[in-house]
Amino acid sequence: xxxxxxxxxxxxxxxxxxxxxxxxxxxxxxxxxxxxxxxxxxxxxxxxxxxxxxxxxxxxxxxxxxxxxxxxxxxxxxxxxxxxxxxxxxxxxxxxxxxxxxxxxxxxxxxxxxxxxxxxxxxxxxxx
Length: 128
Fold this sequence. Notes:
With about 130 residues, this protein is mainly α. The protein has four helices and no strands.
């Protein structure tokens, strides 16, 4: 069981890091307009925070710390989704160019939400 968890954790760390690198490259390619840079910086901050907080969750010292950090991962990923949508809907970046990132962002959110829910269920079983 523990081996499966370690494998999942490593796969998610790698996946989230690749996602963050894609966001970095997107930011580097944005137009130099004020609105593109402002939205881009917000996206860059939230998307890279997903990875940093996921790693912190994996090294949590307590169940409460894990739950807190994994909740931040979800919050930051949702914020990144907002900025990606804004880039597309404002036509700063063609929506078709962002589609894969939007899908990846949504998948990461769903996976982490599911993992948090399963973790909470396991904690509740242990406490009963």
